[in-house]
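Please fill in the sequence for the structure shown.

STRUCTURE ENCODING:
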């Protein structure tokens, strides 16, 4: 069928404005001109803080210091040092920043390992700061903000591999030396970047105190946040301060009062239902404290989940940052590095007593990996960008209709699934039995499908659902199909936010198809 174009997008896309700092105002963010923002960004994971899973490694090479030890064991100290220098130059280069900007994003979140910027005695490392300075220059040229994220604090704030903690404990909260170094680090960062409007803000600690630690050191985290705020404000009165909840940034019980008027509260979201009940506690905190909120890390899932989750955030005025921009052999990031020949032997060497390659052979594989990491040599995944932004996705899941409630996003009188969109009255069900119906959105091991792929929408005649899409999406030829791939008995109507699908008879909807007939994406790399 032929229909017109949607005339407006839900969220106007625009490049960063550097005329002033980004500020919190009335539970939202505004740029230097006073325009309200709804952030869309990507995380530069693995660059200044390598994570083992992004390389295909398992236990034994998960933290940065473990990965560094592996590379040195394989290639030798001199070759290892050379590798890391080249890695810093290639894994995130100006080409990456240019592509991020061209893809419609407005900022990047930069995960930082304290060891890159600070010695064990707390002294600054100029070479590390120069890497950040270079990134800021690129981002300013391509009109992206940069959120500085302390992903690995001195001593470790999580006690897991993601913070490079030396002994697998959150020693930031156990040893005053690490606490002092963290205070010094943020004072140094704020002193250096005060007045730099390319910097979006200061993300004080990534995912502090997961699991049992969230209770053990709850009050210590609050005290540290207060002290870090004071350190920063002593040298920088203007930049946004970002606080994350404990337990992977999902537990917000510590946010009982406003610590700084110019602040932002951050949560993370993975492998869970993309629906309003799942973010209700965060919305309540925003309303109670009058502070803006931000989904600062989420991803590692199918394009269907990504599309639906990011429409959820935007419908509720929540800016977001996708994780991560690039990694090895991935179906779930925009840029996927092709592992070179012999990489499997590098991975296998993690768990062997002796390396499976000699130093010369290992060095050759690492050289090839560096070349493979250049953006121009990566596999580009346009379907991931399209899902995130809602711009011209090839197809979207029927259950990913809008989140603006009855009368705006749907008109239906059914019943949802337990644990998914329980506050909506659209009938959802599994067309095929689910392996894990309690959480159909788990996505281990980089799978391309989840149980969520089996969820369908049932509509009675006259009932409708709306799907939100960007202004560049061509709605001519849109098709709605059932689980058997055949056309569903519906009509499609363009709306200001996208397309409304109205049932003309009892209908089961599986997908809304906007790409080519074979389902392939029509989005080209920028």
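FILLED IN BY: designer on duty
SEQUENCE:
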């Amino acid at each position: 069928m032929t229909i017109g174009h949607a005339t407006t997008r839900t969220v106007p896309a625009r490049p960063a404005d550097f005329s002033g700092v980004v500020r919190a105002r009335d539970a939202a963010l505004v740029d230097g001109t006073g325009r309200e923002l709804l952030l869309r960004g990507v995380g530069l994971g693995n660059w200044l803080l390598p994570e083992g899973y992004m390389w295909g490694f398992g236990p034994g090479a998960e933290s940065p210091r473990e990965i560094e030890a592996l590379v040195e064991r394989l290639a030798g100290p001199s070759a290892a040092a050379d590798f890391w220098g080249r890695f810093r130059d290639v894994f995130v280069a100006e080409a990456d920043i240019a592509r991020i900007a061209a893809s419609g994003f407005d900022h990047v979140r930069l995960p930082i390992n304290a060891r890159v910027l600070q010695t064990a005695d707390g002294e600054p490392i100029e070479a590390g700061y120069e890497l950040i300075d270079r990134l800021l220059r690129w981002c300013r040229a391509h009109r992206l903000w940069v959120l500085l994220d302390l992903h690995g604090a001195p001593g470790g704030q999580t006690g897991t591999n993601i913070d490079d903690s030396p002994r697998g404990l959150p020693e930031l909260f156990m040893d005053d030396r690490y606490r002092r170094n963290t205070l010094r680090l943020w004072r140094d960062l704020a002193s250096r970047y005060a007045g730099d409007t390319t910097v979006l803000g200061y993300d004080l600690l990534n995912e502090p105190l997961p699991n049992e630690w969230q209770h053990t050191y709850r009050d210590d985290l609050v005290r540290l946040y207060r002290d870090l705020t004071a350190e920063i404000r002593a040298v920088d009165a203007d930049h946004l301060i970002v606080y994350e909840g404990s337990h992977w940034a999902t537990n917000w019980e510590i946010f009982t009062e406003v610590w700084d008027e110019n602040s932002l509260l951050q949560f993370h979201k993975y492998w869970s239902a993309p629906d309003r009940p799942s973010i209700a506690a965060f919305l309540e905190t925003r309303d109670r404290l009058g502070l803006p909120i931000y989904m600062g890390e989420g991803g590692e899932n199918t394009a269907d989940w990504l599309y639906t989750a990011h429409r959820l955030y935007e419908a509720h005025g929540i800016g977001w940052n996708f994780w991560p921009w690039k990694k090895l052999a991935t179906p779930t990031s925009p840029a996927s590095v092709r592992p070179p020949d012999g990489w499997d032997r590098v991975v296998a060497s993690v768990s062997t007593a002796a390396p499976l390659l000699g130093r010369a052979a290992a060095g050759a594989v690492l050289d090839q990996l560096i070349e493979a990491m250049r953006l121009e040599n990566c596999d580009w995944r346009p379907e991931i960008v399209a899902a995130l932004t809602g711009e011209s996705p090839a197809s979207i899941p029927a259950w990913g209709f809008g989140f603006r409630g009855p009368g705006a996003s749907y008109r239906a009188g059914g019943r949802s699934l337990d644990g998914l969109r329980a506050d909506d009255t659209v009938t959802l069900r599994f067309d095929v039995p689910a392996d894990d119906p309690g959480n159909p959105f788990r996505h281990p091991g980089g799978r391309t499908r989840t149980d969520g792929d089996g969820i369908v929408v049932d509509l009675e005649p006259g009932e409708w659902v709306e799907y939100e899409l960007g202004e560049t999406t061509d709605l001519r030829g849109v098709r709605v199909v059932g689980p058997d791939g055949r056309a569903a008995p519906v009509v499609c109507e363009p709306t200001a936010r996208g397309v409304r699908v109205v049932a003309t008879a009892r209908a089961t909807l599986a997908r809304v198809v906007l790409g080519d007939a074979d389902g392939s994406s029509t989005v080209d790399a920028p």
